[in-house]
Specification:
Length: about 70
């Protein structure tokens, strides 16, 4: 494969990945569940506050990694 073909293939794969990412963007929560949030500094502070408020209850921290 020539260098030009490799670059074109790379651009096409990147474009397809970006399109798929945009299509799978923020969704909506099912009825009866709290609304979904975008993670940012304020959202993390809210999570910390809620976690600490439940000090007398069982709490679970689940860390997931895509790699």
């Amino acid at each position: 494969m020539t260098n030009m073909h490799s670059r074109l293939l790379g651009v096409l794969v990147l474009s397809a990945g970006l399109a798929a990412s945009a299509a799978c963007g923020p969704g909506t929560a099912p009825a009866g569940q709290p609304a979904m949030v975008t993670m940012n500094a304020k959202a993390l502070e809210d999570i910390r506050r809620e976690f600490n408020r439940a000090a007398g209850q069982l709490r679970v921290v689940l860390l997931l990694s895509p790699t």
